[in-house]
Design goal:
By secondary structure, the protein is an all-alpha fold. 72% of the residues lie in helices and 0% in strands. 0% of the residues are buried.
């Protein structure tokens, strides 16, 4: 009888603490392991670092192509670059010239 009386007095209090602990645990788990939790944040940052390096490579590539385009513009044509492009396009080399292939393009 005395035990039942004590359970009735502190039982709701313990139940409230247990439910509060479960709810807190649920949100703590979601904050660390959920779709928008700390683990996902680390993965997003890792992905962003990879994309930043790829962006830097693409920007360098674009700058290289813009420089090459400027050399081929109508205002100032670089004679060496024009000769190189014409030889590539026409598959022509002079008798006194040596052709070295260094890219993925194979001779035809």
């Amino acid at each position: 009888m005395l035990f039942r009386a004590r359970v009735r007095t502190w039982g709701p209090s313990v139940a409230l603490w247990a439910v509060s602990a479960l709810i807190t645990g649920y949100f703590a788990y979601g904050a660390t392991r959920g779709d928008r939790g700390l683990a996902a944040r680390r993965e997003y940052r890792r992905e962003m670092a990879g994309l930043d390096s790829k962006l830097a490579d693409l920007r360098a590539d674009r700058a290289r192509w813009e420089k090459r385009d400027a050399l081929l513009s109508a205002k100032s044509v670089d004679a060496d670059l024009l000769s190189e492009e014409s030889h590539k396009l026409l598959d022509f080399a002079g008798a006194d010239e040596v052709v070295i292939f260094d890219g993925p393009q194979a001779p035809r």
